[in-house]
Write a structure and sequence with these properties.
Length: 67
């Protein structure tokens, strides 16, 4: 994810997302609303240039694994 400017909260949301958690579960774990999680996910999708959570997870998984 070189060059991407993610907020601390976006990184938190991404971490839970990569573990397969739904927005509601992420919201509960981070003590924020589902709407806030949705906004962070939308921002992550935009910043990574993808249109789905799955595409985001694939892209981030590849980046983390050095592929």
């Amino acid at each position: 994810m070189d060059g991407l400017k993610l907020t601390r909260r976006e990184m938190d949301v991404l971490d839970w997302l990569m573990q397969g958690y739904a927005n509601k579960e992420i919201a509960q774990r981070l003590n924020i609303s589902c709407f806030t999680v949705r906004d962070h996910v939308s921002s992550l999708l935009f910043k990574h240039g993808v249109k789905s959570r799955l595409a985001l997870m694939v892209m981030c998984g590849r980046l983390d694994n050095g592929r």
